[in-house]
Amino acid sequence: MMSDSDADPNRQGVWSAKFLRLWIGSTASGLATWALPFVLGLAVLGGSLSAVDLGLVLAARTAGFLVAIPISGVLADRSGRRRVVLAASLVAAAGVPVIMVGMAVGGASGLAMVIAGAAIAGVGQGACRPAYQALVPMLIAGGALQAANAAMSISVRVTNLLGPAAATGLALLSGVPVTLAAIAALWFISAFVPPWVAEGSGTKSAEPARRLTPARFIHELLEGFQEARRHPWFIAGLCALTAVIATGYSVTAVMLPLISRDTVGGAALLAGSATAYVLGALLGAVVIARWRPRDRGWWSLGGLALYGLVPFSLLFPQYLLVPLTAFFLAGVGIELFNVPWFTATQTEVAPDKLARVSSLDFVMSYGLAPLGLAVLAPLAGGFGSPPVLIVCGLICLAAPLLAMTVPSSRRYSRQPG
After folding, report:
1. CATH 1.20.1250.20 residue ranges in the chain?
2. CATH 2.40.128.120 applies to domain 227-410
3. In angstroms, how far is the first alpha carbon of the chain from the final one?
4. For the whole model, what pTM was predicted?
5. Cα(306)–Cα(304) distance, rounded to whole angstroms?
6. What is the C-alpha to C-alpha distance for residues 412 and 404, in angstroms, rounded to an integer?
């Protein structure tokens, strides 16, 4: 359990000015993160990039994102989460002008610059995530943590919905360069708007002054892994989440567009399902902001299992209401999972290792997802869509249920009662 007292003067309520500033910074970073791929996609339409170029650029961004997450987890626990947010945001902002110059130069050298800029931006994007996550319990008293995490989750859903739409609209109105400049401005908001909080010994690594050699980095990274292993509910829940993302989310990314095209003759299913999912997630976040179930782990994992409805619903895409309902319920369920999950991580994990444990969460869930994306289309081509959808649906249902069998998963705590 966290050793810091809720009476810590740094910690305030959800409606405090400091938390609002943190929320604004996190929202700005989310908008910038989600907007960049869509702006690069529009550059393909404008002829600045080819489809092959776009694949290379997005791969470089993803690689930078994944490499930065564990590094930032160690740095945030060593030298301060707010410093990492500042540095990561400025790094992400620095990648944007490199992309802009590369597009202007064109040719092979220009493409190399765009790829480099995307990788730099990806590093900043990835480095922000565990640091922001670990900042929340430094600002918010324990009793308000769940509501704060719900507010942060609402921010994610808003950015998912508005980021691509706003980027597309601005690019069509003012052009890709102006939109890229707006993305850089969002990163400056992320860098400078969040509040600075005094980080005591309870939230920093015991020996931050020791030089961070490669051996020391690996040692401190392994300390985070060892801390995660102390919480069997965390390992079980993370494995369940990874399974759901690698199968259920991959179905949404790979097969949903094809099913929408082939069965309803356009994007109606694709657009409707995305909207239903976000609306369900917003409702779930509002509900879980105030609801405190005693067996929060079981309720949370049950919410995660609802994503299994999505692959099954796509067996009946001609009945549009079926997949739309499934996506709505999956959206509700994902927030019933996310908010208690983040809250439990923040309260159960040792404060000086929180950023490293959070980085393990992000690396597993984001890092293994491409494996599902890579194999799903070939499997569907070889065996047909229905068997693949059924298997993915069963995995999404079974993985959280298996995680429930771990005793500490019932309340997401090793503490009795």
Report:
1. 17-141+156-193, 227-410
2. no
3. 14
4. 0.88
5. 5
6. 10
Per-residue pLDDT of the chain (417 residues; tens, 9 = 90+): 444 434 455 566 788 899 999 999 999 999 999 889 888 888 887 788 887 888 899 889 989 999 999 999 999 998 899 999 999 999 999 999 999 999 999 889 999 999 999 999 999 999 998 999 999 999 997 788 999 999 999 988 888 777 777 887 888 888 889 999 999 999 999 999 999 987 754 555 555 556 778 889 999 999 999 999 999 999 999 999 999 999 998 888 888 888 887 877 667 788 889 889 999 999 999 999 999 998 999 999 999 999 999 999 999 998 999 999 999 999 999 999 999 999 999 999 999 999 999 999 988 887 766 677 778 878 888 898 899 999 999 999 999 999 999 999 999 998 755
Read off the tokens for 334. 């994902």
User: What separation in angstroms does the CA of 257 have from each of 17, 187, 270, 407?
Assistant: 42, 31, 6, 39
Domain 17-141+156-193 maps to which CATH number in 3.30.70.330, 1.20.1250.20, 1.20.120.80, 3.40.50.12780?
1.20.1250.20
